[in-house]
Amino acid sequence: MMKIITFSLFIILAVFNAVSAITFFSEDDCTKDVQQPFVHCRARIPVWHWDHRLQRCVLSLFGGCAATNNNFYSQEDCFVIAGPICGGHRKYKPYYYFLLY
Fold this sequence. Notes:
By secondary structure, this protein is an alpha+beta fold.
C-alpha cells in the first residue's frame, strides 16, 4: 500500500511540474536570457533556452542562480514548452553541440 501511495505522489508531482512549467512560460520569456542581468554566479551548468533571433532552442551555460523561465534541462523540453509560444512551429529536430570548457 505504501508503494502505491508513494508512486501516486510521484506522478502527481511530475504532472504538476509539467503543467506549471507550461503555465508560467509567456511570450515575454521568449526574449529573456537564461539568467537575470547583472547577476554573476560562477557555476557553468549546460541548459537549453529559446533564442528569439534564431527561432529555436540553443545550448548555453547557466551560472546557477537568478534563473529566468527561459531555462530548460533538455532541448526537447525547450522545444515543447517554448516553441509554440515563441513561434517555433517547425518540427522538433535535435541539434548537437560541443561545450568547450
